[in-house]
Amino acid sequence: MRAASARHKWDGELHNFSASLGASSPMPVPDLSLPTATLAALVVETFNIGAFTILFGGCLSFIFTKRMSDVNGVLTPTLCLIWILSIVHWVVDIIRARIAFIDDPANAVQYLTDPTVPLDGAKLGLYASITIVADFFMLYRCWMVWNHNVYALSFPVLCWLATASTGWVGTAEIIRTQRGGIFIPNLQPWIISFFSLSLATNVLCTLLIAYKVLLSQIYLRRTGTHSTGRVIPALIIFLESAALYSLSLIALLVLYQTGLSISFIILDWTCSVIGIAFSIIIIRLSIINSRLRSAQSTTAASLPPLHTPSSGNYPLVRVSRLVTRDDWSHRHYSESGSGAEEDRLDRKTSDTDV
Fold first, then answer.
1. φ, ψ of residue 188 in degrees (nearest 5)
2. What are the residue boundaries of the structural domains of the chain, listed by start?
3. What CATH class is the domain 34-297?
4. What is the pLDDT of residues 323-339, one digit of tens each?
């Protein structure tokens, strides 16, 4: 009897505790106020712009020196355009912050949530432009790696065209929208589609490049061809930079769908990190290339002259050919005992440039 009473009392307390849990409201997700998020985003973007500018100067130093003297006409304009657009985007954010917090601090929130302000439309248009330019170069890189194979890039190109369309149409919709900010329902499909399509374009191109490079490395191992040792480190660098940008986009998508003001920080972070990732690839690949050339020069200087017999009009000598690619403009060295075999393997190796 006493045990049944204790059990009844315990069941009642458990029921009351469960009811209190059900009646309690869910814990709100911590968020920043819009002015705080705007200022924090400006600080983050300022640091990133400083880092990007230093890396940009380093890239130009590599490009216009002997280490990358054969640079093509696509890499340099793309890098300069991304840097210029990033600087203009940063200046627009500074002007918006000055107007909101210095010129009219009483109406700061009202100004920051008004998408009809020309500077707000310019900010989002610049972000869309930076993304479109960066995705275009990703497509170009993939196109060169796949040896101008149109069929391999058909779907990524469609994703890029859709990214450009949603980016510009979304910017126009934001300019035409009345007060309410970028979280109003009629704008969310455009913005979410833009982020998602850009993410899809980068992931597809990254997978295609990685597949082509690994496939070529398998082929070279099967044929017993000596690899320069640059391709796999270059692929790792490329994958790391692609992962940095892709993770930033995923975080931006998740935070934007929750409607948190902290998404403005990730937005400005992603805008500036595009150029940082772009520059890191160029600098690290150039350093690897320079080290390999130094090692090859040291090895060649330490070896005695090689004299081999010849047969007819085709001398059987070791030939070192300099292959210049126009996608990353690096020099690659491949060796073989036959001129015809060398040409074939050089073309195969050069097709895998990252």
1. -60, -40
2. 34-297
3. mainly alpha
4. 334 333 333 433 333 34
